[in-house]
Amino acid sequence: MMSTLPHCPRFWRYTSHTAYSAAVSFAAFTASPALSDEALTGPIASRNLSPLYANLGIPVLVSAASLEAGVWDLDWTLHWASHSVRESSTGRSLELDGETRRHDFRIQRGLGKGVAVSLNVPYVSHSAGKLDGLIDGWHAFWGMPDGPRGVQEDNRLRYAYSGSSGFEFQSERSSIGDIELGINVELIAAETWTLGALAQYKFDTGSAEDFSGSGDSGASLGVRWSWQSCFSALLSCHVQAGFTEVGGIGFDPKADTVTPFAGLSIGWQFADSLALLAQVDSHGAVYDAQVLRKNGPPVWGTLGLRWQPLERWLIDAQFVEDLAVGSAPDVSFRFALSHSF
Fold first, then answer.
1. Is the CB of residue 181 less than 8 Å from the CB of residue 144?
2. Which domain holds residue 201?
3. Torsion sign (Cα): 165, 169, 175, 176
4. How far, in Å, CA of 220 to CA of 181, rounded?
5. Keywords on this record (predicted)?
6. pLDDT of residue 238
7. Could you tell me the pTM of the whole model?
8. Can you list the residues of the chain whose pLDDT is less than 50?
9. Is 236 among the domain residues?
10. CA-to-CA distance for 110 and 307, rounded, in angstroms?
11. In this structure, how many other beta carbons lie within 10 angstroms of the beta carbon of residue 317?
12. Is 300 within the bounds of a domain?
């Protein structure tokens, strides 16, 4: 038997109205809120993954402009670093040889009136790794010096410091790191620039023995400044500076408990959905022991791309170099996925 569709006009009006309403609702959900150019050219949440500094709770650079009220942002970041340091001074020695993979799971929420809060939960792994051969080949191809890599074994894990409260770490371990809770407040929001303040608290949830935590809690205060169309309509600039109270450090009891930090980021949107990002970050050399601070205050640079494949989605791919040799990992890679709703 052939089925027949109803010919009632009311039925068709109801069906058409329902379908139209569903289509409009779906379109509104998928298209709003769309990411602005500010997000595409925003700063990079880059970290110094040196085992000496990674867990001190230095705030990453983010925009001074807070999320709008009711907006959520979820992001996952993989920092993958290779370490190669070998130093000696005043009868003490330091060796860092291995790899660190840090997964940051961060959630941000806009509360309105220029206020946003964030929660970051890291998962940290230390291993012998597999990057040594790749890095050695890269150095050889460009004729670059290999430094300590020329005498250190490939794919080996060893963090060792011979001080009186030193450490010897050679077993692969993974665990939750120190959780960070932060707040960003817009102080002045002009048409093309924003001045903000930041505060962050680091909980002692990681393990100093596993190099997933510092062994103490910490807190940070600072300022941020973001400027759209800086020097050019296609460029944006972001700056932050402040101080971090890092707490006590078990293997260097005389280390500074407060250290300054600073960062500068420039983003260039060269296509509708692509941006080139360049950033420099630094903080103080907190250690008292000469061999631990021999390379001076850490300075590292981050360079790479950010892509917006769909509205409300961002994908990052960058590499990180130690600009002050030995104060940060020899080579790091950073990948991130972000979603706003």
1. no
2. 32-340
3. positive
4. 10
5. Signal
6. 98
7. 0.86
8. 1-34
9. yes
10. 23
11. 12
12. yes
Q: What is the C-alpha separation between 124 and 174, in angstroms, rounded?
A: 6
pLDDT of residue 33: 43
Query: Coil, strand, or helix at residue 40?
Result: helix
State the distance between the two ends of the chain, measured CA to CA, in whole angstroms. Answer: 49
CA-wise closest residue to 129 among 161, 95, 154: 154
Rounded distance between C-alpha atoms, residue 125 and residue 173, angstroms: 6
Q: How many CB atoms lie within 10 A of CB 96?
A: 24
What are the DSSP E strand ranges found in 132-232? 158-161, 167-169, 173-176, 180-189, 193-202, 218-228
Tell me the C-alpha to C-alpha distance, in Å, between residue 333 and each of 77, 79, 215, 303: 10, 6, 26, 10
| Number of DSSP helices (H) and strands (E) in the chain, helices first | 3, 15
Tokens of 298: 């850490």
Instruction: Classify residue 258 by burial, with Cβ atoms within 10 Å: 0-12, 13-18, 19+.
Output: middle
User: Which two structure tokens, joined as six digits, stand for 210?
Assistant: 């596993």
Instruction: Output the domain CATH number for residue 183.
Output: 2.40.160.40
Query: E strand or H helix at 87, and its extent?
Result: strand 72-89
pLDDT recorded at residue 227: 96
What does the pLDDT look like over 109-151, one tens digit per residue?
999 999 999 999 999 999 997 887 787 777 777 776 667 776 7
In a domain, 17, yes or no: no
Angle 187-76-179 (CA atoms, 0-180°, nearest 5)?
Answer: 65
> How do strand 92-112 and strand 258-271 relate by DSSP bridges?
unpaired
The tokens describing 211, both together, are 């190099």
Residue at 267: amino acid letter: G
Position of tokens 């600072």?
A: 222
Q: Which pair of tokens denotes residue 245?
A: 């109270």
Q: Which SS3 state, helix, strand or coil, does residue 57 take?
A: coil
The number of C-alpha atoms within 13 Å of 210 and in the hemisphere containing its C-beta is 18
Token output for 15: 């069906």
Determine the Cα–Cα distance for residues 176 and 101; give it in Å rounded to an integer.
12
Asked if residue 27 is part of any domain, the answer here is no
Alpha-carbon span 278 to 281, nearest angstrom: 10
Number of domains in the chain: 1
What integer pLDDT is reported at residue 4 of this predicted model? 42
